[in-house]
């Protein structure tokens, strides 16, 4: 018996990205509409009803899992995670809308969750790590992947599996990687345990692999025509999969026995109920249930409506193969039976190309859509562990590796252009040129669902954007095979590039359309033309999730309060009231809401925060220090008083245990608190900041100068270099005292000359050094001494001769990063020679 539609659950307002269905009466769905929904069946109803809507935050919810009942939660827990970087735990059946636990630790978008048989939760993130949580506390950090962790499974005991955009799967025993499974050719997107065999994996390469836990590849399943996003296992051993080709497929003994086409662009998630029914979540915002049991099928009218919805879709051509319409047979070809379930055949019906799929149960061909062209190509472009519709190569100078410009068709081109320029420290005056290039070389595709484009919060990829034309035009510089394009200066494009299109850095081909050349695109000038120095805009750390911070601080305060030995450290009522006012104010100002009627942070609030920092244990301080980072960034007024600022910064140094515990490896609490100290300090130097003779600046710099730099983590070094960069922006307008300038100069040189160092830290240090040189050349400023000039030149030479490749980074990417720093070095030498 084939699967047919059983239920349509419509309540989400955007893509359904995650599903779990632990019982026949419960489905949990997660969506990029920033909600998760609990769907339940009551004893009086045979259909699923929306029971509760969970709102963990303002960002996409990418994943959801279920934790079985406990005495505190007799209906179990729904666990959600996503763009807000927080795992939120909700007690099902609870009247409260707030999570009972918030698990904080990931540093980027969380895209995968799974619960083991003993209630252990494992999470995967863009930060290239997985984390294991027991009793809602961090148990293990799983570090070893070179890119985003997109799939996770808790096997049994303390054994875990993780799949990554680095194309590998790793098995972990506790926190140690014990085996790596290599076989996929692209990012691994889903994992599922297969009884008596091992597990199954799916990938952007369109393949499903079945493995033993010992590392043997048992067999592969081929049939999907694009990315495969999710897997689940039915109680009888059948494997179900879903993907970008808008299908759910059912596999048995290595064969696809049924293909369920959806009236959507992407089927993001799939799950199975204990009774064997299939649950899917798709880009059309709908959760659907399919069943083999006839008594659970939808009505005949609903089934017919569903078939019509599927048939009315405009199907991207690459989902069924790229062939010329003139080579296709007519409708008479549908008289011949298909060879297997799910086989797709295209026929030309007048001027329209139709796609039909073979239904082996009914012995008929079913129309599944009208074929049109597609955006870019059938395969998204993978860049830094995330997928994009296009990844353009931007040539800025002969002999220098091109810069990467990633773009999704659902993005505003201005946003993508600005992100590209800022990431590569290029002047924003070129934003118009980049926007024109993007618009010229991208196009959309019409889809019958209409509505919006679909962005992938798992990977950053985007789906197809509806347009006014049913047959889009392809950008003149787009590569029809890869979707990539190359953006070259017009002088090069009009030169001798006609015969050889090989990219010496990447091996890729430059596609040049036949016939007339495309209209020229005004190139970005070479680095010597767009000056990086002076750089006047500080880099601030303002990203935040106020509800999660508030929840975590409350949770930690409760922990302190309930222990007899630490209960005296808990927040006092007046401190709770003051911190609540701070959170309320920051929540409004960061969300762009009206905060005129709220209490702005004052010296009284600062005093309360200092008291908490001085009182709480090191492992509990981080949400308070993170709050400090935002106060410094958004509410600097109460800190304009030099004496209060001095007290505040001294409290931060104490809170980070600055004068103690300098050991290797650094404790997790100290490592985390130091990063937050550095971010708060970087935020203290903004465009309107005046340093004058404020003693707090010199005190911080003296501490930084004597710190054991070799013990700093890469993240700490980058943020530390940002402090130097931001201060250099300030001194362009506000000359510092000589001792302060010299101390800043010494720290900056130390950061640049440290080996090994990462390219981003070096680049930010070089910008800071360039600003110092530039400021010294201004009228009325003391010039650099002969010795200082020699040391600057030596630092530039050191950067040119050094090399650093981050784990998982290609030599090309490292060369691009280094080129930014060496370009700044040449500007510095030019300033010294002027």
Brief sketch in words of this structure:
The chain has 834 residues and is of the alpha+beta class. The chain has five domains: 4-312, Methylamine Dehydrogenase, Chain H (7 Propeller); 317-372, no CATH class; 381-492, Roll (Ubiquitin-like (UB roll)), CATH 3.10.20.870; 531-684, Leucine-rich Repeat Variant, CATH 1.25.10.10; 688-834.
By CATH, the topology of the largest domain is Methylamine Dehydrogenase, Chain H
User: Which parts are unreliable, with pLDDT below 50 for 5 consecutive residues or more?
Assistant: 373-379, 443-530
Structural class: alpha+beta
Would you identify the CATH architecture of the largest domain?
7 Propeller
Mind explaining what this structure looks like?
The chain is built from 16 helices and 37 strands. The chain is of the alpha+beta class. It folds into five domains: 309 residues, YVTN repeat-like/Quinoprotein amine dehydrogenase (Methylamine Dehydrogenase, Chain H), CATH 2.130.10; 56 residues, no CATH class; 112 residues, Ubiquitin-like (UB roll), CATH 3.10.20.870; 154 residues, Leucine-rich Repeat Variant (Alpha Horseshoe); 147 residues. It has a four-stranded antiparallel beta sheet. A four-stranded antiparallel beta sheet has the order 2-3-4-5, with no helix packed on it. It is globular and about 90 Å long. It starts with a strand and ends with a helix.
């Amino acid at each position: 018996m084939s699967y047919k539609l059983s239920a349509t659950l419509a309540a989400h307002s955007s893509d359904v990205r995650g599903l779990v269905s632990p019982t026949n009466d419960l489905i949990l769905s997660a969506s990029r509409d920033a909600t998760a929904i609990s769907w339940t069946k009551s004893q009086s109803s045979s259909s699923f009803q929306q029971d509760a809507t969970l709102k963990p935050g303002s960002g996409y919810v990418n994943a959801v899992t279920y934790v079985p009942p406990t005495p505190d939660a007799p209906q179990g827990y729904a666990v959600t995670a996503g763009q807000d970087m927080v795992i939120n735990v909700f007690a099902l059946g609870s009247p409260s809308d707030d999570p009972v636990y918030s698990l904080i630790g990931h540093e980027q978008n969380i895209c995968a969750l799974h619960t083991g048989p003993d209630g252990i939760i494992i999470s995967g993130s863009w930060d290239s790590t997985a984390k294991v949580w027991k009793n809602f506390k961090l148990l293990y950090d799983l570090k070893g992947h070179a890119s985003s962790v997109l799939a996770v499974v808790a096997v049994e005991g303390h054994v875990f599996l993780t799949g990554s955009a680095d194309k590998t799967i790793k098995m972990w025993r506790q926190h140690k990687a014990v085996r790596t499974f290599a076989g996929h050719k692209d990012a691994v997107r889903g994992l599922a345990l297969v009884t008596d065999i091992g597990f199954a994996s799916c990938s952007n390469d369109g393949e499903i692999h079945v493995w033993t836990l010992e590392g043997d590849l048992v067999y592969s399943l081929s049939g999907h025509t694009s990315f495969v996003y999710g897997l689940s296992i039915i109680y009888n051993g059948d494997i179900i999969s879903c993907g970008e080709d808008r299908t759910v497929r059912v596999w048995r003994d290595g064969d696809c026995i049924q293909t369920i086409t959806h009236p959507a662009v992407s089927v993001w998630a799939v799950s199975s109920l204990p009774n064997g029914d299939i649950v899917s979540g798709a880009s059309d915002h709908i959760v659907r249930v399919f069943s083999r049991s006839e008594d659970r099928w939808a009505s005949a009218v609903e089934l017919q409506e569903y078939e019509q919805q599927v048939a009315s879709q405009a199907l991207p051509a690459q989902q069924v193969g790229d062939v010329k319409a003139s080579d296709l047979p007519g409708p008479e070809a549908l008289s011949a039976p298909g060879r297997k379930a799910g086989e797709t055949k295209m026929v030309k019906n007048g001027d329209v190309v139709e796609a039909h799929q073979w239904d082996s149960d009914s012995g008929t061909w079913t129309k599944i859509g009208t074929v049109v062209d597609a955006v870019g190509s059938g395969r998204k472009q993978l860049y830094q562990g995330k997928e994009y519709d296009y990844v353009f190569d931007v040539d800025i100078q002969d002999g220098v590796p091109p810069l990467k410009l990633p773009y999704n068709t659902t993005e505003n081109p201005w946003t993508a252009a600005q992100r590209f320029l800022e990431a590569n420290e290029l002047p924003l005056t070129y934003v118009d040129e980049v926007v024109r290039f993007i618009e010229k070389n991208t196009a959309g595709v019409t889809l019958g669902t209409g509505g919006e484009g679909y962005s992938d919060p798992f990977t950053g990829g985007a789906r197809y954007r509806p347009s006014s034309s049913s047959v889009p035009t392809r950008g003149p510089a787009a590569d029809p095979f890869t979707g990539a394009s190359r953006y070259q200066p017009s002088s090069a494009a009009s030169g001798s590039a006609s015969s050889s299109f090989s990219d010496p850095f990447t091996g890729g081909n430059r596609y040049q359309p036949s016939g007339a050349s495309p209209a020229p695109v005004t190139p970005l000038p070479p680095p010597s033309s767009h000056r990086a120095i002076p750089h006047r805009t500080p880099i601030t750390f303002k990203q935040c999730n106020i509800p999660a911070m508030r929840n975590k601080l409350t949770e930690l305060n409760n922990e302190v309060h309930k222990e007899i030995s630490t209960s005296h450290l808990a927040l006092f009522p007046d401190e709770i009231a003051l911190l609540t006012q701070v959170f309320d104010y920051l929540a409004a100002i960061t969300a762009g809401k009206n905060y005129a009627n709220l209490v702005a942070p004052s010296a009284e609030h600062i005093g309360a925060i200092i008291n908490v920092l001085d009182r709480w244990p090191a492992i509990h301080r981080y949400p308070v220090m993170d709050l400090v980072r935002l106060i410094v960034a958004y509410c600097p007024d109460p800190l304009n008083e030099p004496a209060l600022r001095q007290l505040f910064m001294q409290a931060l140094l104490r809170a980070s245990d600055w004068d103690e515990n300098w050991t290797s490896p650094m404790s997790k609490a100290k490592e985390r608190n130091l990063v937050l100290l550095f971010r708060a300090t970087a935020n203290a130097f903004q465009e309107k900041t005046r340093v004058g003779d404020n003693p707090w600046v010199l005190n911080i710099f003296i501490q930084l100068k004597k710190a054991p730099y070799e013990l700093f983590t890469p993240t700490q070094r980058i943020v530390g270099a940002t402090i130097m960069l931001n201060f250099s922006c300030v001194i362009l307008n506000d000359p510092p005292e000589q001792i302060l300038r010299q101390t800043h100069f010494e720290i900056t040189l130390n950061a640049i000359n440290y080996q090994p160092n990462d390219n981003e830290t070096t680049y930010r240090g070089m910008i800071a050094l360039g600003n110092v040189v530039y400021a010294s050349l201004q009228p009325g400023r003391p010039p650099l001494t002969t010795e200082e000039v020699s040391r600057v030149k030596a630092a530039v030479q050191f950067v040119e001769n050094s090399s650093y490749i981050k784990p998982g980074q290609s030599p090309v990417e490292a060369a691009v990063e280094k080129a930014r720093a060496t370009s700044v070095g040449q500007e510095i030498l030019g300033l010294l020679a002027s």
